[in-house]
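Help needed: design a sequence for this.
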């Protein structure tokens, strides 16, 4: 009996803790999921664990490129050194050829969509005196972004104990990539044709989804990575029901049979899309708090949100678990004027702060003489006495 009670207590404690509640079964060893609307991590698994990252390395290669190149439409000549050794290492290439004239934009598309090692090497050789110097640029960016579990030893993503990151650090790099409109446009494209029209690149994610008949229409783009050491890795963007998500997974089983990284993405996205969403927890016409008034006709001033309060919550959330905390003046008086800031409204769900917003006096307040004098009777008494004295004096004169 004691054991049953103990297990019941643990069960209810887990229910109250979002991270512990989600029992999601995935192949990936590490993962981190963001709600990009709030910037909040809503799911994680070993997110800070150092791990091999395969071609997710190319996200940093792309980030360094846009930092170094002012005009992505400037031209580059593919050289023999850009292609040397790639076939021997059995690396995926975008298809660029020796002597071909392309743009940096073409190279970035070849880097991010088909994950071309030829594009990565061409960028490294053109943007730094040597590959080693380009790698230094990559690691300088690591320091700039204050990444604690990341180091690069090549621009391609080859298995190397000195080329590693974590799901969380990759998520930071990916968010930086998405801040650049050119990179975001490429990474969310289903296909891209090079400037000379010779090559057409297609999204690896969508190609795998169609090949293995995995329905992920909400995935809008991303970057894959695969090596025997890193397993299957994926950084992806998704959008569903007005919510934008970003997911990074690493270390999924690599067996050449199934795209476990894509299956994991579907598992995670489907869970949150089906069980969570943006909820209107209070409209701007709703009274969520009341402040006492002094000497006013209304007993209370109704505090209403400046805009609809929308938050990402479980579909089965209970409105009773929403709490409002007002930090500001304790009462409204005639000293307060319309448009005055009177405080801050904080909104909590199960004791976790969701948001806060300033509160302004938006309605005209009405002075009540009756309340004023009823609460300040000492002012009236002398007046009454004076009136009585005057009446007595007048009566006395009348009798004379």
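Sure. Designed sequence:
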């Amino acid at each position: 009996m004691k054991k049953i009670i103990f297990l019941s207590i643990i069960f209810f404690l887990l229910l109250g803790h979002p991270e512990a509640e989600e029992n999601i079964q995935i192949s990936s060893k590490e993962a981190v999921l963001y709600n990009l609307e709030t910037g909040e991590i809503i799911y994680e698994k070993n997110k800070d664990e150092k791990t091999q990252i395969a071609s997710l390395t190319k996200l940093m290669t792309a980030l360094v490129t846009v930092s170094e190149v002012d005009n992505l439409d400037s031209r580059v000549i593919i050289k023999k050194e850009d292609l040397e050794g790639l076939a021997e290492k059995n690396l995926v290439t975008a298809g660029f050829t020796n002597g071909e004239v392309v743009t940096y934009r073409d190279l970035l598309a070849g880097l991010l969509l088909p994950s071309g090692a030829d594009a990565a090497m061409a960028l490294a050789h053109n943007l730094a005196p040597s590959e080693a110097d380009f790698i230094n640029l990559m690691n300088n960016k690591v320091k700039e972004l204050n990444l604690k579990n990341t180091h690069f030893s090549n621009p391609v993503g080859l298995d190397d104990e000195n080329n590693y990151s974590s799901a969380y650090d990759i998520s930071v790099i990916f968010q930086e990539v998405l801040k650049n409109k050119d990179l975001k446009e490429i990474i969310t494209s289903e296909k891209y044709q090079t400037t000379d029209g010779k090559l057409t690149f297609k999204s690896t994610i969508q190609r795998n989804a169609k090949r293995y008949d995995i329905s992920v229409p909400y995935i809008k783009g991303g970057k894959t990575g695969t090596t025997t050491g890193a397993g299957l890795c994926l950084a992806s963007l998704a959008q569903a029901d007005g919510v934008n998500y970003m997911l990074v997974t690493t270390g999924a089983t690599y067996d050449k049979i199934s795209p476990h990284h894509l299956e994991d993405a579907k598992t995670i996205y489907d869970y949150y899309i089906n069980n969570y969403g943006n909820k209107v927890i209070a409209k701007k016409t709703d009274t969520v708090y009341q402040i006492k008034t002094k000497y006013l006709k209304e007993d209370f001033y109704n505090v209403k949100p400046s805009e609809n309060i929308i938050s990402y919550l479980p579909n089965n959330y209970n409105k009773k678990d929403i709490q409002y905390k007002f930090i500001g003046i304790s009462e409204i008086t005639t000293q307060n004027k319309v448009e005055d800031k009177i405080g801050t409204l904080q909104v909590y769900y199960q004791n976790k702060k969701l948001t806060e917003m300033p509160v302004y006096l938006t309605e005209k307040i009405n002075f009540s003489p009756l309340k004023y004098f009823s609460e300040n009777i000492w002012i009236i008494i002398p007046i009454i006495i004076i009136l009585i004295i005057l009446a007595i004096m007048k009566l006395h004169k009348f009798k004379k």
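Residues 1-21 have pLDDT under 50 and may be disordered.
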